[in-house]
Amino acid sequence: MADFGKAGKRTIRLHDGAVLVAVSKGEYLAYKLTVQGAVPMFTFACKHTSRKSQSDFPGHPKATYEWTWSQGSNESDSPDDMYGVAMMFISAVKYTLVVEHRRQDNTVIKTLQDVDYESKEHSDSFTELLRVFAT
Amino acid sequence: MRLPKSERSLTIVFFVTFVAISVSAQVRTSNCVSPADFTAWINCRYDEIAAARISQRGNTQQVEMPSIADNTTSLVDQSSAPDLLGLALDLAGLNKGSDSGKTAMAATFSAYALYARGSNHEGLDPAFYTRHANLRRFSFTIGRDDGETKAGTNDPATILGGKILLINRREVTRRKNLAELDKVSKRLNAATPDFNATASDVQDYIYNQLAAKLNLPLPFTPASMATFINGPLNVGNFAGTLALLDTKQLDQIDEIIVKRINSKVELVDESLKAFETIRRKPQLSFTFQSKLRSGAGIDEYQTGLTYDYGLYRRLNLTVNGTFNYRNSPAIGANTRGGKLAAEARFQLTPDKNILGGTGPFLFSMSSSAEWLTKTKPTYIGQAKFTIPIFSGIDFPISVSFSNKTDLIKESKVRGRFGFTLDLAKLLSAAR
Q: By the number of CB atoms within 10 A of the CB, which of A9, B98, B279, B411 ranks highest?
């Protein structure tokens, strides 16, 4: 049976669903999305608005997309928010998402998520969630 | 007045039946069983409720699944180059376990796959994939055929062939197809905040409902909610947490999901529409195939053009015209001629087979006419019905009619059935 959609497989190496980020102390989140396929299609959004999608990155389409949240400035809409990376498999077959909680000096506090998502079914999609409490 | 015993029994049976039906009507149906964690479960419920919304709409609004000539479910070319050394050994009959007189096999691969392998590059790197779109126009076939031949010889034949896509409007990296994908991306941008908000509300609801049972503080604090999400809602624990919710609470969760489901429905619609639009676009290819036999065997050559087009929704049309040449070692026995063939394939059902897996029922009608020197024209018609048994296993039943074969002059009707195996699908279903 599929882990998601019709034929999706989700391989979890590390997974937290929530994090407390001391933005006032310079802590931030670092995202890295690695893609296999023809044309990646994904969106990074909170519960209020979409923040980034694949076409916002120079060099798209490419194998690796990296971005941060609240590095250097507080990017939160509210102290309690839900962030998600939504991935479509209409033109890609595999995504690997790594999310790190980092200090202001860029050292890693904890790797929150390290997950593979695979599907050869064009209609499959998956949104990986992270509830973020910004302090 | 007391009812007769027979009427009392009937009344009791009717009452029990009524209660059973009522209870079963209230039982929730969901395929979101055994989710790894909250995220997997909420994704699944969201998909299920969106799918239910789509199927509730009228037929005129439903997006038809596309008719796909090659029966794939992806826009991405995932063909990989074979191990050429192993392939060569197989053809030469030098591989252990290979019966050199009876082995039948063929491998088809694209120039793109070959180039990726040769340059030691990941073929599914999106940047590499986009840069070398033209290499995917060229594909090659190498194989060995041990089956019956029209030439009347059972000598094994080496198959060498190639195909060039002169027109390939289905290439996903084409500008017009990228524009179709952009429409999907816009819908994704709109749908994702809704999903995130819904997931957040559902987490809050579950926390509030289970706070007493799990000794959680109310109202929740950032720390207590984070602990709850990383504990009872996370991998390894979520199934047990889900079991604590009763039907009424699960129904309440569905109500939360339904409030923002429309953007997901629109995303699914747009995605299906984009896929159908791209996969139905025309392809025109130039093909060349040869069967080469040693000794007294007859070499066969065929070259021509094939046009493939998704006519309308589930109907796909393929037309090809070829020039055929047979080179015989016997003096004066060479033949040459032409062949015209057409096939219309209709996908009868969505992607479901009789065991509930993937694979549509297909009906196709085809006809061909062949003219060769020193031979009377051959006309063949065929109707084929393909029943999907399981993902990767199909059961085709066909009826063919021809005015003559090469060897006998009587008209011939032939029926065939068998099994086809798609090894890639079987392996992915087994995972």
A: B279
Tens digit of each residue's pLDDT (9 = 90 or more) over B238-274: 999 999 999 999 999 999 999 999 999 999 999 989 9
Task: Indicate which of A9, A29, A34, A50 best probes the interface with B, i.e. most B CBs within 10 Å of its own CB.
Answer: A50
What is residue B16's predicted lDDT score, i.e. its pLDDT?
46
Q: Tell me if chain B has a CB within 8 Å of the CB of A14.
A: no
**Mean pLDDT score of chain A:** 96
Query: How far lies B405's CA from each of B113, B152, B343, in Å?
Result: 39, 11, 20
Q: Using a CB-CB distance cutoff of 8 angstroms, which residues of chain A are in contact with residue B268? A: 123
User: What one-letter code names the amino acid at A16?
Assistant: D
**Residues of chain B scoring pLDDT < 50:** 13-27, 58-71, 94-103, 149-150, 152, 352-357, 407-410, 424, 427-431
- Distances, alpha carbon B310 to alpha carbons B63, B67, B421, in Å: 15, 7, 24
Q: Which secondary structure element, helix H or strand E, spans residue B185, and what is its range?
A: helix B175-214
Which residues from B are below 8 Å from A93, CB to CB? 74, 76, 78, 124
Q: Specify the pLDDT at position B320.
A: 86
Read off φ and ψ for residue B192, nearest 5 degrees.
-65, -45
Query: Cα separation of A116 and A12, whole Å?
Result: 7
Q: What are the residue boundaries of the structural domains of chain B, listed by start?
A: 40-75+170-279
Is the CB of A47 less than 8 angstroms away from the CB of B196?
A: yes
Which helix (H) or strand (E) is B140 found in, with range? Answer: strand B138-145
Give, for B394, the enclosing helix (H) or strand (E).
strand B393-402
Q: What are the phi and psi torsion angles at B328 (to 5°)?
A: -105, 145
Given an 8 Å threshold on Cβ–Cβ distance, is B75 in contact with A122? yes
Give pLDDT tens digits for A76-116: 989 999 999 999 999 999 999 999 999 999 999 999 999 99
Structure-block tokens of residue B45: 């419920």
Secondary structure (DSSP) of B329-341: SSTT--EEEEEEE
Contacts (Cβ under 8 Å, ≥6 apart) of B85: none
Terminal C-alpha separation, chain B: 66
DSSP assignment letter at B361 = -
Residues in Cβ contact with A83 at an 8 Å cutoff, skipping those fewer than 6 apart: A44, A45, A46, A69, A129, A130, A131, A132, B196
State the Cα angle at A39 between A33 and A40, rounded to 5°. 25
Measured between CB atoms, which of B127, B197, B223 is closest to A47? B197
For the CA atoms of B56, B60, B66, B69, the dihedral, rounded to the nearest 10 degrees, stands at 130
B225, two tokens: 């909610």
Asked whether B227 and B234 are in contact (CB, 8 A), the reply is no
**Measured at the alpha carbon of residue B36, what is the angle toward residues B30 and B39, in degrees to the nearest 5?**
80
Identify which of A10, A7, A20, A4 has the alpha carbon closest to the alpha carbon of residue A97. Answer: A10
Strand, helix or coil for residue A86: strand
In this complex, which of A3, A38, A49 lies closest to B173 when CB atoms are compared?
A38
| Joined tokens for residue A51 | 């923040």
Of the candidates B32, B49, B53, which has an alpha carbon nearest to the alpha carbon of residue B256?
A: B49
**Cα A53 to Cα B136: distance, rounded to the nearest angstrom:** 28
> Can you tell me the distance from the alpha carbon of B54 to that of B262, in angstroms, rounded to the nearest whole number?
10
Helix, strand, coil percent content, chain B, rounded in steps of 5: 40, 25, 35
